[in-house]
Amino acid sequence: MKTIVLFRMVPDIVEELEVASDGKSLDREYLRLMLADADNHALEQALIIKERHGGTITVLGEDEPGMEETLFSALCKGADRAIKLNSSPQAGTHARAHWISKGIRETPDLLPADLIITGAQAIDDLDGLLAPMLAQFLDLPFLGTITRLDVNPATGAGTALREFAGGVRGEYEIKVPVVIGVQAAEKPPRYVPVAKLRTIMKSRRLEAVQISDGPWIFPVSEIRSMMKPQETTQAEMLAGSPDEVAAKLAGALLAHGLM
Amino acid sequence: MAGEIWCLAEQWKGSLSDATFEALALGRELSDALQVQLQAVLLGHAQRAMADKVFGVDRVLYVDNPAFAAPSPEQSAAALATLVSERKPRAVLITLTNTTWEIGALLAAKLRITYANCCKDVRVENGQLMARCVLYGGKMEVDVGSAQECVVFGLLAGVRPAMLRAETDVTVEEVAVAVPEVSCRFKGYREAEAGDIDITKQDVLVCVGRGIQTKDNIELAEKLAETFGGAVCGTRPVIDQGWLPLSRQVGRSGCIVKPKLYVAVGVSGAPEHVEGMKGSGLIVAINTDTTAPIFHVAHYGIAADAVEILPAITEVMANRKAKACATPH
Fold first, then answer.
1. A96 touches B: beta carbon within 8 Å
2. Which of chain A's residues have a Cβ under 8 Å away from the Cβ of B246?
3. Domains of chain A in sequence order
4. What's the pTM?
5. How buried is B188 (Cβ within 10 angstroms: 0-12 exposed, 13-18 middle, 19+ buried)?
6. Distance (Å, whole) CA B96 – CA B81
7. ipTM score
């Protein structure tokens, strides 16, 4: 079974985010990028399936800060092939989905693939979601919000659990090839020891694929302005030493009849 | 007719969702501003009676097909694409719940039209539709516009208070649309497994987010919860790490909770989490990041490392409780 896993780098929102001087985008000077959470789960789910049934995993991501290390990390975890695509000339998830679909088609020996898996969402999805849009551009079936996935390599048939509200899951029958949006893997994503990562960075090489640009026109959501949330409500902040804060909180809870 | 505001009426397990009526409330504002009709699209099977319950709209377009007996994003998007191509609405409003949230992206890619995701507001400015969208886990917002003739808007929960029920005559138009066969087929539901504790019935919840740092630190939250006679719950990343069982998850995919006291510990306040706890009586947030969106939802905030502050809070609460118990009444 051949599986492709797609990676995206997104801003680490533990860091302070600032608006750039154009007033429409993020200030990228000190921006730290990290692998999108759900993409990490997508890889984990692919690894679980490989451990069950064998097969190969190819990880693929656009050339962005931190992507190389992320791709090497995937090799450490058990991916077989890692490919870095040149970045899309247009911003946004809609354009990215189209760009990656071109990348998948233009990369040698990548298609046909059985499973194309990525995260169900990313925190910068302003104009779309990668998995369903990619499925449209590749003309493949799609199922998303998945928390469990298995495929019988002999028949190409499998089952997937889709997440609904209130802890309810829906069981779906699937058939490869299919594009899957993973919400969470069956198990927490595994970690890679730094020493192992360093070793593989010395011993393995990433493939680089240059996607041909072309005359393609996308519907553009024009960003007029970007801003930090200007909420009208703001918590009353309790400041001081831990003991002082605790005492203030106790007083507040008492005032609200909660003590 | 063309140029109407459409709203996908979300039905799941035989009921219309509350989010549908929030979206319709917004849709009514937009349709009034543009002086066009507000129409709901209901995709269902043997649910003609449900179409009569979609109040506050000028027309309901009801598509009956066995494919819509269970959630099928691909088939829903295909049917909508056919309808949009034929009737050319100005906008399609789609709620971002786990049942419907992928339909907008599929529709936009299918028709090569603009999609605006995570909208907390949509308004009319100089005749154009403008959306305020939430990005980066709620840490940034953007205003986006599109000159396209049709735009799809994905609406966050709470975009407007739900439209109030009104007894009005609804015009229901039954529409026949060809729905393609798909290979991803619904087999059945697996209901939520009962947990040791029902977090929807707790008066006090201490919710741990990624900021709790390690599984071992959850014990600190448990001690605080114990002091109040409450329980610990978690955000999606904590559940996905396997640190707490699925039955303890709060948010869009988990439980909607409304305790008297909700203490959010190391929780950033992403929209999908806030959706599940914003109805709590009193919200206290503890987070080192003073810009975390949770502080816009909380009544009281503490800018501190949860691991350092929780023991102090627990001790003070336990002492006060002990004194209260010792005081003769």
1. no
2. 167
3. 2-209 (3.40.50.620)
4. 0.91
5. exposed
6. 18
7. 0.92
